[in-house]
């Protein structure tokens, strides 16, 4: 049985004062693998005090010193790449393919941040004034379970680049991944208190971070419901907030797209990270007159998807992170049928032979209307909705008819046409003909998908406070 009974405060692994424990359950087998001891409010306060104390000197460090720390972190995390992948597969149930990519993102967060930092000027001019970009203070970093270490590395690297110190609260379901990344960061030898990690529950540790007056900013990734609670709590002390929240991203297939390529890609894309991805293209918008052809291609693609043991090379969809998440996804599959959508593949229940884990069948609905709940709400599982549209204008209207606005996708053989549509979509990131990622481009949501941006200079400046000096 794995026992995770330390948190990380002021440069040391220490026993939390909190005594409550949380069971760690393997999502592939539903067997208990261990326990994590949860920190409480006092633990959080001690972590914040350590970060506050460290900020006094860390905010004065030079760009070169911060680059050197980021370099050390990069080395320490890179060294344990394989372990980071295997613990993620085991604890979270992410597929080997996905976890490799996610750990790569975690590792490269340090190198891309170094690149950004090298060319960033902390002093600029505006009008006849000097503008200094100063470190904000102690940052509260609150992250979800669906790519835990990648979020932590990206946020912490940016905080360090900005001269901020941090208190990190990961999901309690990611405790083993957290333990490993904490060991890597410890090995990097940063000054005491620059980063602190408190395992714990959202309504205890997360709430303390949200309300504590010594936290200057919160960088949160998670659900829109939690994001709203954090924003409301943070306003009392006027904290800066970056909120990366949910999505229901449209994937517009234009008439001139090569359907044989675009449809399988759309289906596999919707199932990325077991369907537990904020940017997943879960609404597939297709021309009405091509619906039959699309249905056939989508059904064929979905039937090829291997749902199963996430540790096997060719698995595309592993288990849902928890039994609760499995039940939630099942309820949406039932709802889709009740709402009158046509089930094209998958459906309720577990795939044969996979009864022990939280496995969901790769599910595709067609003839979905955009006013159905399966088209409006984030399901966070391998469930795709195909929605037909009459013309380009209607495709854009459907794409934008959502409370979310995190990402959007367009497939077309005419790049100019696709870019013209991209300009009319309300989303923070629009990908044309594929699912590319650019760590130097801003990432974040329009509307209820969030506030603020991460990545690149946009992300860095969210950890800085501009001060104008007028002479
Ligand atoms: P969640 O909102 O339930 O939890 C996220 C984190 O917030 C966890 O660490 C949790 O303990 C903490 N938390 C919960 N209640 C809190 C409170 N009242 N105050 C402070 N902290 C609290 O999300 P989840 O279920 O872990 O993750 C799935 C969600 O994350 C999905 O909605 C998904 O779209 C979203 N997400 C967004 C992005 C993005 O970049 N936009 C990326 C990944 C996931």
Write the layout of secondary structure elements.
Elements: E1 2-4, E2 7-9, E3 12-14, E4 21-25, E5 32-37, H1 41-58, H2 63-79, H3 81-92, H4 96-119, E6 123-126, E7 129-135, E8 138-142, H5 148-161, E9 165-169, H6 175-187, E10 195-197, H7 202-211, E11 217-221, H8 224-234, E12 240-244, E13 250-253, H9 259-270, E14 283-287, H10 291-304, H11 323-338, E15 342-345, E16 363-366, H12 373-376, E17 383-389, H13 392-400, E18 407-411, H14 415-422, E19 429-432, E20 450-451, H15 456-461, E21 464-469
Parallel strand pairs: 1-5, 8-9, 8-11, 9-10, 11-12, 13-14, 13-18, 14-17, 16-17, 18-19
Antiparallel strand pairs: 2-3, 4-5, 6-7, 7-21, 12-20, 15-16
Helix pairs in contact: 1-7, 2-4, 2-6, 3-4, 3-6, 4-5, 7-8, 9-10
The structure holds nicotinamide-adenine-dinucleotide (NAD).
CATH superfamily of the largest domain: Aldehyde Dehydrogenase, Chain A, domain 1
Largest sheet: 7 strands, mixed
Q: What count of structural domains?
A: 2
Strand content: 15-25%
Question: What ligand molecules are bound, each kind once?
Answer: nicotinamide-adenine-dinucleotide
State the end-to-end distance: 64 Å
Chain-averaged pLDDT = 98
What is the CATH C-level name of the largest domain? Alpha Beta
- Give a count of the beta strands, DSSP E runs of length 2 or more: 21
User: If helices are DSSP runs of H or I spanning 4 or more residues, what is the number of helices?
Assistant: 15
Strand order of the largest sheet: 15-16-17-14-13-18-19
CATH-derived topology of the largest domain: Aldehyde Dehydrogenase, Chain A, domain 1
Radius of gyration: 22 Å
Assigned CATH architecture of the largest domain? 3-Layer(aba) Sandwich
From the helix content, strand content and strand pairing, which structural class follows? alpha/beta
Query: Globular, elongated, flat, extended or rod-shaped: what is the shape?
Result: globular
């Amino acid at each position: 049985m794995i026992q995770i009974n330390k948190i990380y405060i002021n440069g040391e692994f220490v026993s939390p004062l909190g005594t409550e424990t949380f069971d760690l359950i393997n999502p592939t087998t539903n067997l208990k693998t261990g326990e994590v001891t949860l920190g409480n409010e006092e633990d959080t306060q001690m972590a914040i005090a350590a970060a506050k104390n460290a900020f006094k000197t860390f905010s004065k460090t030079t760009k070169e010193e911060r680059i050197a720390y980021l370099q050390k972190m990069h080395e320490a995390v890179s060294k344990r790449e394989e372990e980071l992948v295997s613990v993620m597969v085991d604890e979270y149930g992410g597929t080997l393919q996905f976890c490799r990519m996610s750990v790569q993102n975690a590792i490269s967060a340090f190198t891309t941040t170094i690149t950004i930092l090298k060319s960033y000027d902390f002093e600029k001019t505006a009008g006849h004034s000097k503008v200094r970009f100063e470190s904000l203070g102690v940052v509260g970093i609150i992250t979800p379970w669906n790519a835990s270490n990648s979020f932590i590395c990206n946020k912490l690297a940016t905080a360090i680049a900005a001269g901020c110190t941090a208190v990190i609260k990961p999901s309690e379901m990611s405790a083993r991944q957290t333990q490993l990344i904490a060991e890597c960061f410890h090995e990097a030898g940063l000054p005491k208190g620059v980063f602190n990690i408190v395992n714990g529950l959202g309504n205890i540790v997360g709430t303390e971070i949200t309300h504590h007056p010594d936290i200057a900013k919160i960088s949160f990734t998670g659900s829109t419901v939690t994001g709203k609670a954090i924003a409301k709590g943070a306003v009392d002390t006027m904290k800066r907030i970056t909120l990366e929240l949910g999505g229901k991203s449209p994937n517009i297939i234009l008439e001139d797209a090569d359907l044989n390529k675009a449809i399988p890609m759309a289906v596999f894309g919707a199932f990325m990270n077991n369907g537990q991805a904020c940017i997943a293209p879960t609404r597939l918008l297709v021309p009405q007159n091509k619906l039959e052809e699309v249905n056939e291609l989508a059904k064929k693609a979905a039937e090829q998807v291997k749902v199963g043991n996430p540790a096997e090379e060719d698995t595309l969809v592993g288990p849902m992170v928890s039994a609760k998440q499995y039940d939630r996804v099942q309820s949406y599959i039932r709802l889709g049928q009740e709402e009158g959508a046509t089930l094209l593949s998958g459906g309720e229940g577990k795939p044969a032979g996979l009864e022990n884990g939280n496995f969901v069948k790769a599910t595709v609905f067609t003839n979905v209307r955009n006013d159905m709940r399966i088209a409006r709400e984030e399901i966070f599982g391998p469930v795709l909705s195909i929605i037909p549209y009459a013309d380009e204008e209607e495709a854009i209207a459907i794409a934008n008819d959502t409370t979310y606005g995190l990402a959007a996708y367009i497939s077309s053989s005419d790049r100019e046409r696709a870019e013209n549509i991209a300009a009319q979509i309300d989303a923070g990131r629009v990908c044309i003909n594929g699912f590319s990622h650019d760590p130097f481009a801003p990432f974040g949501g329009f509307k209820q998908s969030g506030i603020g941006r991460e990545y690149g200079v946009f992300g860095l400046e969210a950890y800085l406070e501009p001060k104008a000096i007028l002479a």
